[in-house]
Amino acid sequence: MGTEDLELLVSRTMPFGKYQGRLIADLPGHYLNWFARNGFPKGEIGRLLALMYELNHNGLTHLLAPLRRPEAGRRDTSKH
User: To the nearest 5 percent, what fractions of the chain are helix, strand and coil?
Assistant: First the structure.
């Protein structure tokens, strides 16, 4: 796992299924748990889902906050 993998979690979207189009970092824990029980897909998406599962399971999702892109239209109000 490297910084690149963490950045992918906050920029890649789920390519299929119930949560298609949602950022991998925003997938619900129960969905990640389902993959952990039933098997992660092969390839990069499986690797990213497994990583997100580990972060979620171990309470480390806060590590992704600094990597998230600011939402469109949101202004930085801390510079008053």
Answer: 50, 0, 45
Q: What is the pLDDT of residues 44-59, one digit of tens each?
A: 999 999 999 999 999 9
With CA atoms as reference, report the closest residue to 49 among 17, 75, 80, 76.
Answer: 17
In a domain, 79, yes or no: no
Asked whether residue 17 is domain-assigned, the answer is yes
Kindly state whether residue 73 falls inside one of the protein's structural domains.
Answer: no
Contact partners, residue 11, CB within 8 Å, separation at least 6: 23, 69
Domain presence at residue 59: yes
Range of the structural domain that residue 15 is part of: 3-67
Distance between CA atoms of residues 32 and 64, nearest Å: 16
> Of how many residues is the chain composed?
80
pLDDT band of 42, cuts 50, 70, 90: very high
pLDDT at 10: 96
